[in-house]
Amino acid sequence: MPHPTNPIDEPPYVLTDPHHMLGAYLDYFRTVVPDKLDGLSEHELRTSRLPSGWTPLELLHHLTHVERRWLRWGFLGEAVDDPWGDRGPDDRWRVPEGMSPDEVLARYEEQCAWSRAAVAGVPLERRAATGGRFTTEAEAPTLGWILFHLLQEYARHAGQLDVVRELADGTVGE
Question: Which Pfam family, just one, is annotated for this protein (predicted)?
């Protein structure tokens, strides 16, 4: 699963605009997560090292769907085929049979690029549309809330991948 292995720097500490800061940190973690998978064999990408049973490749596929659920289906209210497509019949994460690691990465990168473009310049105070994930205006969160939620989800999963990677081959996360 090739991925650029350039050093990844945290966004600059001089950022003050919340929209730019959220976007910069999301992009940081959108790069950190696949970078943590770089160098793992396909066997390791598809093997769980944790009692919960998820694999690194399933986590990356999950994050593709998280972006779709929160921004396409959630914020924009678009109709999305199978918004929970990262889950199997047992409600656990899964990667569709026959999908290669490179395809999972390509879909992830495509969704991240779409997400980035979809929220560019949109005020953080704007509420999500109704008709998709949210049925009433009262339950529709703001874009700021959604982006912050995505950020915490990425940060949590990046930390989980640090543990998985250390168990897999001894690589210690930063």
Answer: MST
When pLDDT is averaged across residues 121-136 and rounded to a whole number, the result is 96
So what's the pLDDT on residue 3?
43
Q: Which tens digits make up the pLDDT trace of 33-91?
A: 999 999 999 999 999 999 999 999 999 999 999 999 999 999 999 999 999 999 988 99
Nearest partner of 36 among 149, 151, 155, judged by Cα = 155
Query: What topology does CATH give the domain 18-169?
Result: Four Helix Bundle (Hemerythrin (Met), subunit A) (1.20.120)
Q: 3-class DSSP state for residue 2?
A: coil
Query: Which residues are bridge partners to 142 per DSSP?
Result: 127
3-state secondary structure of 7: coil
Is-contact 143 23, C-beta < 8 A?
no
d(CA 9, CA 19): 19
Amino acid in position 1: M
Q: What is the pLDDT of residue 173?
A: 76
Residue-range domain boundaries for the chain: 18-169
Count of C-beta atoms within a 10 Å radius of residue 52: 8
Assess contact for 131 and 140: CB atoms under 8 A.
Answer: no
pTM beyond 0.90, yes or no: yes
What phi and psi, each to the nearest 5 degrees, are found at residue 87? Answer: -115, 145
- What tokens were used for 42? 């396909």
